[in-house]
Specification:
single chain
Length: 335
């Protein structure tokens, strides 16, 4: 009985191996060897040790060190241009073309500039100020909780020999610091208590800055430029809030706004007034879409317009010009 079972099991194993021989592995088939031990005959399976050589696989050596994953050569995806309000697409389609060729009207720089102009004209106010008053050549909203009262701190950048705003804020009892390196005037204290500094506003500290020529800079000059936080630290205002920040810096406002947003100082500014500039030759037209994004981010940070005054515009590409005075209050101000 045991001998019969052993033979059946052995034959079953042989069948399985024969199946593999014609299948995937293609190995040499097993051999059946007869062994005698006393009255028993055992059938054992023997598989040869030699098998066909496997196909060679050529390994590619790793060269990760040659790749810089932080600086991909591929260009980042271009962010789609979006207006301040979705309805501005319709307004854009109905705007005068000013006899411009199609390639100009379809360019991103033209659309970005148009969206800025539309917002200045169609939405000059984001909120209504009931106690708006004139302070020199600018405005001040005295509604609560934006009211400016003693003790208050005011920084005014870009004077152009007109201290009317600065003197008016000093009369309210504020500590006022005026900055302008283009006036060739030394540091001094005016009889209105306004402190003048021959320093320009930038995004970093620059000792020898050569400005571009404009109506305020006729000849070559060398200025000292400082960023806002460095100025506040220099004047001992590191832990103070700015009740009013006014900047009129002839096109440099765009980089300054980016600086304010990136350095988290916006929540410490109660009032923010500035003149926006897009000159015919500066900033570069390729930057207009970025300027529009910067403009939109300012509102996201909490700055709401209560006054907009537009200067004369020129829509000729070679003389393209947009300028506007805008006064904001900060609805996210934290004292």
């Amino acid at each position: 009985m045991n001998r019969r079972v052993l033979i059946i099991v052995s034959l079953l194993g042989i069948s399985i191996l024969l199946f593999y021989k014609g299948g995937l592995f293609q190995m040499e088939g097993p051999k059946m060897i007869k062994q005698e031990s006393g009255n028993k005959i055992n059938v054992v399976l023997f598989t040869p040790k030699t098998t066909p050589a496997l196909p060679k696989i050529e390994l590619i050596p790793e060269k990760v060190e040659k790749y810089n994953f932080t600086k991909s050569k591929k260009r980042p995806l271009k962010e789609k241009l979006q207006p301040v309000d979705i309805a501005d697409w319709t307004i854009l389609a109905e705007m005068p073309t000013y006899k411009q060729p199609k390639r100009v009207l379809q360019s991103d720089w033209w659309k970005a500039a148009a969206f800025l102009e539309i917002d200045f004209k169609k939405r000059p106010k984001d909120l209504r100020c009931r106690k708006q008053k004139s302070v020199g050549n600018w405005f001040l909203c005295q509604d609560e909780p934006y009211k400016v009262k003693e003790p208050c701190l005011v920084y005014s950048f870009g004077i152009g020999n007109d201290f009317s705003f600065d003197d008016a804020m000093a009369k309210l009892g504020c500590e006022v610091h005026s900055f302008d390196p283009s006036m060739n005037m030394p540091e001094h204290v005016r009889n209105t208590s306004v402190v003048f500094h021959p320093i320009g506003l930038s995004t970093s500290v620059i000792k020898d800055f050569n400005p571009r020529h404009d109506i305020y800079v006729i000849q070559d000059q060398s200025w000292t430029m400082m960023d806002l936080l460095s100025i506040m630290e220099m004047l001992g205002h590191k832990n103070r809030v700015l009740d009013y920040l006014k900047i009129d810096v002839e096109g440099h406002e765009w980089s300054v706004i980016d600086y304010l947003l990136k350095n988290g100082i916006t929540s410490r500014i109660r009032h923010f007034s500035l003149e926006y500039h897009i000159f015919p030759d500066w900033p570069d037209k390729a930057r207009y879409p970025d300027l529009l994004r910067t403009y939109k981010r300012l509102k996201e940070a909490g700055f709401y317009k209560y006054f907009t005054g537009i200067h004369p515009l020129d829509h000729t590409p070679k003389k393209f010009n947009i300028q506007a005075d805008v006064c904001y209050v900060n609805i996210k101000f934290q004292s």
